[in-house]
Amino acid sequence: MSGRVVPGPDAPAHPAYEQLRAVTAAASVVLAENPSPMTLDGTNSWILRAPGQAGCVVVDPGPEDPTHLDRLAACGPVELVLLTHRHLDHTEAARSFAERVGAPVRALDPTLTLGAEGLGAGERLAAAGLDLRVLVTPGHTDDSLCLVVDDDGSVLTGDTVLGYGTTVLGDYGGALTDYLDSLRRLADLPDGTTLLPGHGPDLPDARETAEYYLRHREERLDQVRAALRELGPDPAPRQVVEIVYADVDQTLWPAADQSVAAQLDHLRRVGPE
């Protein structure tokens, strides 16, 4: 099984709130109506099942929104709920939804699980007729993961790689160093692996997108290095933001502060050049 779904003339396009939209032979998406500067159009909840299977896997049930959760439950029976990382726009409804549909919850962070163990790097999951592979990809958070659907030629990336724009780095030591390694793992996926993100539209090639993200991060690091030559070796993150992110809407500068802190931490770890 492989390949993208060719949508019919009446198929919804992204964004289409609370409508089930088929993307690949095994993956469909329901977009929660929770748009914001941080969630873009809203949170994508993914429904995975092999063709002909009754049961499904729900990835990232999203917010406690009755309309959204009713739509997800209608896709059942649900065999398993999976979480790509801890942020509430992905996990807020996980426990209540799982209890409603009678399914366990699994995640890399064991505190998010329900009726099951935490996930491990490289672990394979057999559910809804699919073989899912856990790819640990920290950076956005320290518990971020991607799910590779090998028999569908797709990868669910959570917030590690988005459908447009770039992701905010985590506020823990080593976040950017981790993130660059995670992007390299995604760049090793086969050509034409469909990218199914936690926010934004699906993209046709995860490897190509990860390589673009890597180039973007290296360009930002070069800009930070240039700012350090102007500001000195130990500036506050906001001083760097005012130079490097001068063209970004200032309402997003607090998020940029976090990314710059991660960039400065990375440069201290690997050296400025």
From TrEMBL:
Pfam families given in the database record: Lactamase_B, WHD_BLACT
Annotated Metallo-beta-lactamase domain residues: 42-199
Coiled coil: none
Domain of life: Bacteria
TM region positions: none
Protein name, entry field: MBL fold metallo-hydrolase
Species of provenance: Actinomycetospora chlora
